[in-house]
Design goal:
The chain is of the alpha+beta class. It is extended and about 120 Å long. It contains 7 helices and 23 strands. It folds into 3 domains: 87 residues, Trypsin-like serine proteases (Thrombin, subunit H, Beta Barrel), CATH 2.40.10; 111 residues, Thrombin, subunit H (Beta Barrel), CATH 2.40.10; 94 residues, Roll (Pdz3 Domain), CATH 2.30.42. One of its GO terms (molecular function) is serine-type endopeptidase activity. InterPro entries: Chloro_Bact_Ser_Proteases, PDZ, PDZ_sf, Peptidase_S1_PA, Peptidase_S1_PA_chymotrypsin, Peptidase_S1C.
């Protein structure tokens, strides 16, 4: 009996030791190699903690950026002249109401100098009206000067102020799709300093943008696409990275889609701003002086005419008028480049400089002519 009990004791001790070694070895292996299947059986308390920490970290970034940058973001408002509008109703007859005369928030901007230089979109301040700027603390400033970039949807507005806090301009040359971004602006022209977040959804996009409030339309290339909520009224506001640096200027939102917004790369803005600070004006762009419509390949075949830019109108006194271009001409080549839907007249002109002389190949009444024009300077 003693021998049997001893055997049972030794066997039990060996089994217990084996279980202890297995548990200890599993724990060590789990810590060293992070065995995921064990998490299904015994969830890690630390994993939930790390997830909570990540959420808190993201929230902290947004809060920090919003608190630091919001004082540098302004609301742009416009005041149109007061006028009385006459209306007729079949039930009540004639009546009148007053329009205008009160400020209306229409866009956003951000401060780039302590003495009151502010960047916004050109379409935000395109009307011939009186504009004001409202800062985060509610102070109002009259806009004393507006300078519009003829080549981009950018404008610099000036207010008489000092001691302002400018934003930090980042670098849009090394952006990545999926990068976290923050937008600040006056959403819907009503909700000032609205903060939204998202990611960069795409780079190098080409869009036709406009303002529902101002009726302004322009073709924009190489813009940033983001899913951060951008609404009418956000135009001109900053698109920021997680460090609080401006990487883009919010410019448009897709009207027929959700969570599709666009911003001008800040490097384009910095180049234009440097030019403005040096010379007091934006770089001029070359000007020919024609209104035209591109003829597609199918339209050219159907009408037995060449592809090119069909001239609708020639501006009086313009380089085009001086060169002898007439309405109903078709410009087929400019400076040796063939014109088509993929290479429009504007695409070729933008590569040139004011004062540059260019040869134009014209199709007129079945004949091909060659004319020369000296591009002039166009600035706003």
């Amino acid at each position: 009996m003693k021998v049997l009990n001893l055997k049972k004791f030794v066997l039990g001790f060996a089994i217990g030791l084996l279980i202890l070694v297995a548990i200890t070895g599993g724990a060590i292996a789990d810590r060293l190699f992070g065995l995921k299947p064990l998490d299904l059986l015994i969830p890690r308390e630390g994993s939930a903690l790390r997830f909570d920490q990540r959420i808190l970290t993201e929230e902290s970034v947004v809060i920090d950026v919003a608190e630091r940058v919001s004082p540098s973001v302004v609301t742009v408002s416009v005041q149109t002249p007061k006028r009385r509008v006459l209306e007729f109703s079949p039930f009540g007859g004639f009546s009148s109401r007053v329009e205008g005369g009160t400020p209306q928030d229409i866009g956003t901007g951000f401060i780039v100098s302590e003495d009151g230089l502010i960047i916004t979109n050109k379409h935000v301040v395109s009307a011939d009206a009186t504009y004001k700027v409202v800062t985060k603390d509610g102070k109002e400033y009259e806009v004393t000067q507006i300078s519009r970039d003829p080549s981009n949807d950018i404008a610099v507005i000036k207010i008489n102020a000092s001691g302002l806090t400018p934003v930090e301009l980042g670098d849009s040359g090394n952006l990545k799709v999926g990068q976290f971004v923050i937008a600040i602006g006056t959403a819907l022209g009503e909700f000032r300093h609205t903060v939204t977040t998202g990611v960069i959804s795409g780079l190098g996009r080409g869009i036709t943008a406009g303002s529902a409030l101002e009726g302004y339309v322009e073709k924009l290339d190489d813009v940033i696409q983001t899913d951060a909520a951008i609404n009418p009224g956000n135009s001109g506001g900053p698109l920021l990275n997680s460090a609080g640096q401006v990487i883009g200027v919010n410019v448009a939102v897709a009207s027929d889609a959700q969570n599709v917004g666009f911003a001008l790369p800040i490097n384009v803005v910095k180049e234009a701003l440097d030019q403005f600070k040096t010379t007091g004006k934006f770089a001029s762009k070359p000007y020919l002086g024609v209104e035209y419509q591109m003829i597609s390949k199918d339209t050219a075949i159907l009408n037995n005419v060449p592809q090119g830019a069909y001239v609708v109108n020639v501006v009086e006194g313009s380089p085009a008028a001086s060169a002898g271009i007439q309405p109903e001409d078709i410009i087929t080549k400019m400076a040796g480049e063939e014109l088509n839907e993929d290479n429009t007249l504007a695409d070729v002109i933008v590569k040139k400089q004011p004062g540059e002389k260019v040869d134009l190949e014209i199709w007129r009444d079945g004949q091909t002519l060659t004319l020369s024009a000296t591009l002039s300077e166009f600035s706003e």
